[in-house]
Amino acid sequence: MKITNIKIKNFRAFPQIYHINLHNAGKNLLVYGENGSGKSSLYLALKYFLESGVPENSEDDRNRAFETHQNIFTEDLGHIKLHFRSEPQREKDTYEWSRDVKQTTDELIIETSKAKGFLDYKVLLETHYLHRENDIVNLFDLLVEVLLANTINPRTDRPLTADWNAIQPPFPRRGAKHQIADLERQIVNFNRELANRLAELSPKVSEILNKFGYKVALDFDFQGVTYNQGEKTLDNREILLKVEFFDTDIPSHHRFLNEAKLSAIAIAIYLSSILCLPEPKEGMKILALDDVLIGLDMSNRLPVLDILNEYFSDYQIFLTTYDKAWYEIAKQRTDQKDWKYAEFYFSQTDEYEIPVYAEDKAYLEKAREYLDLNDYKACAIYVRTAFEAVIKRYCEKRNLAIKYRENPKDLRSEDFWVPIKMEMDEAGDLLLDLRVVDKIELARKFILNELSHDTFVNIYRKELEDAIDAVAELEAALA
Fold first, then answer.
1. Longest dimension (CA), the chain
2. Residues whose CB falls within 8 Å of the CB of residue 465, separated by 6 or more in sequence, listed in order
3. Percent of the chain with pLDDT over 70
4. Any residues with CB less than 8 A from the CB of 32 and at least 6 apart, and which?
5. How many CB atoms lie within 10 A of CB 157?
């Protein structure tokens, strides 16, 4: 079973309606996005949608209230809609999460949530950065309450989190020997099963970590939780991360190893914990990684693609990045029949911010959609983006010289457009038809000039239609 369509309306960074088509096969999705462009909002849309199927009071209820994430620039009610493909086809194949539609009882959503893997760069910091003031790295809470929480105890056929919750306060009163003995038996059972889960996890972590080519070995030191009758507390809540580097113990590895190695360790731990989760009885396996490769240089990012291909081939993967160079490399190293590629850009009007979403550079198609919706400001942004994409691609293809800017972000459309309209053939004649040049110049006065978009005053439908036609003609002329 795979997600084939995602529809997002008025959720976090997304005003209006955004439609991501993953085709009938339910492809993996690779997203490039500028900071603030909406890629993390997409990640959270999927994450919170699935967590809406978690039983009440087991998660932060705030995340499961759609209105908490409503886009702040609109009062219209929003929603997240996911369309699934299944074999055989289910009676219900489109699911919605909104203020009025919750998924707290649907077995498909609940089972999918149990087997999901959602990682972002902030979560990875819990394995090293949050412990920087301590001499040790204690992963007890992270492993027990998060990463291994849904792994199954074969003796009781219930998740580890249930065994952990069974030994929580209130504790028996002093003198209640039978109750205390029963608690201590449950603690022994919990310790045994947690040790088993760690024994399963440890070799997986080492195997995945080896894919990065580091001479690093890991172990989880767990001595067992004990009950302190005098203080009525659970003591020894420790799973200490032990690290060897070139066969040498590193007592405070989180202070000694560089960011790339610490990131690789964190990724290995998280991905390995996902492999320990049980197969969903119903539903699908989803892995979403939001900018998790920030701490890795380019050579250390390539193994991640190999890891995903080798260990997560039966997952539907959502991978986002802010790094355009890495995005282009990842596109070349992934199979197009299994992956879809999309880009998000940040833009704004004088009233609100808007993510610019493009599938295969289809900016003009999106502009026409907003024109049909009478959202002229959003339409203008997409037309301008289409214009900039056309001229940048052409300059790169033709190796045209453009004005030097120390910061590439300071480049303006003028820097690309002038060399194009002045380009000549061998006979000294202008290559571009003057009629196309005139149409673009006219559109640049109002629609295609980026400086005009901070202070929209009056945008007329005819100007937008003319700008769309002009860019379409330019694109055809430069093809």
1. 103
2. 371
3. 92
4. 39, 320, 321, 322, 323, 324, 327, 341, 342, 343, 344
5. 8
Q: In what order do the strands lie in the sheet with 28-33?
A: 117-120, 286-290, 316-321, 28-33, 339-348, 353-359
Q: Record the pTM.
A: 0.78
Pairing of strands 117-120, 152-153: unpaired
SS (H, E, C) the chain: CEEEEEEEEEECCEEEEEEEECCCCCCEEEEEECCCCCHHHHHHHHHHHHHCCCCCCCCCHHHHCHHHHECCCCCCCCEEEEEEECCCCCCCCEEEEECCCCCCCCHHHHHHHHHCEEEEHHHHHHHCHHHCCCCCCECHHHHHHHHCCCCEECCCCEEHHHHHHCCCCCCCCCCCHHHHHHHHHHHHHHHHHHHHHHHHHHHHHHHHHHCCCCCEEEEEECCCCEEECCCCEEECCCCEEEEEECCEECCCHHHHCCHHHHHHHHHHHHHHHHHCCCCCCCCCCEEEEECCCCCCCHHHHHHHHHHHHHHCCCCEEEEEECCHHHHHHHHHHCCCCCEEEEEEEEEECCCCEEEEEEECCCHHHHHHHHHHCCCHHHHHHHHHHHHHHHHHHHHHHHCCCCCCCCCHHHCCHHHHHHHHHCCECCCCCECCCHHHHHHHHHHHHHCCCHHHHHHCCCCCHHHHHHHHHHHHHHHHHHC
Which tens digits make up the pLDDT trace of 95-119? 999 988 876 678 888 888 888 999 9
pLDDT digits (tens, 9 = 90+) for 61-82: 556 788 889 998 888 889 999 9
Cα 336 to Cα 319: distance, rounded to the nearest angstrom: 14
